[in-house]
């Protein structure tokens, strides 16, 4: 009887956690590693929420990926009896002088079968009077999209992975010898070694640190501002 392949997945964020879970569900033996834990504040998958939308312009694969993600979240929300996808709707607003990105999106949305509406500024003003639409000429509204609970969903994916028989270790992978092929094993921060048949690195912006020669500065994480809004206390 052929033994199950052993796969090590480094990084327990959105990509790493789901990769590990799907590999496990398909019969592999999987070890998942993360230096700080799923959905940590150091990860690009961290934070409270992430918008999930289909409007991504004309030349990209993301609209079809978003459509598939919407179906998968519906499936796993039912399985786990928790709601991570909140279908609040997403409104994308476009100015009239530079809207090539938005003009190229409806065709992609139709092809991916994501429900959307093209709205004029008067229509948006009537529907959302709380928004200031100065400089906005039209918009795209996706009623079935919304936001995901980012940190909580990453943590739940890893919990489901462990419950299904996967092995999770909160340890860092050391940089030494990672770029020397073939890779015999991973050196871990507790002094141990992890040997697997295959290695998958899903480390997002940290890949340049792990592979300074192959990747280095080729990955440049963009600055992302986080805003918190709330009503006055005591109301």
Task: Summarize this structure briefly.
The chain is an alpha/beta fold and 235 residues long. It has helices at 14-25, 62-80, 100-103, 105-112, 121-127, 150-163, 207-210; strands at 6-10, 29-33, 49-52, 85-86, 90-94, 117-120, 138-142, 146-149, 167-169, 186-187, 193-194, 198-201. It has a 4-stranded parallel sheet, with helices on one face. Strands 3-8-4 form a 3-stranded antiparallel sheet.
In whole angstroms, how far apart are the ends? 66 Å
Largest sheet at a glance? 4 strands, parallel
Helix proportion: 25-40%
Largest sheet: spatial strand order:
9-2-1-12
Topology as a string of helices (H) and strands (E): EHEEHEEHHEHEEHEEEEH
The unreliable regions are: none
Strand fraction? 15-25%
Q: Could you report the average pLDDT, rounded to the nearest whole number? A: 93
Radius of gyration: 21 Å
- Pairing-aware structural class of the strands and helices? alpha/beta
What is the 3D shape?
elongated
Protein architecture, described:
This protein has seven helices and twelve strands. α1 (14-25) runs parallel beside α6. β10 (186-187) and β11 form a beta hairpin. 29% of the residues lie in helices and 19% in strands. It starts with 5 loop residues before the first strand and ends in a 25-residue tail after the last helix. The strands form four sheets. The protein has a four-stranded parallel β-sheet with strand order 9-2-1-12, covered by helices on one side. With 235 residues, it is an alpha/beta fold. The longest helix is centred in the N-terminal third of the chain and has 19 residues, at 62-80. The protein has helices at 14-25, 62-80, 100-103, 105-112, 121-127, 150-163, 207-210; strands spanning 6-10, 29-33, 49-52, 85-86, 90-94, 117-120, 138-142, 146-149, 167-169, 186-187, 193-194, 198-201. The mean pLDDT is 93.
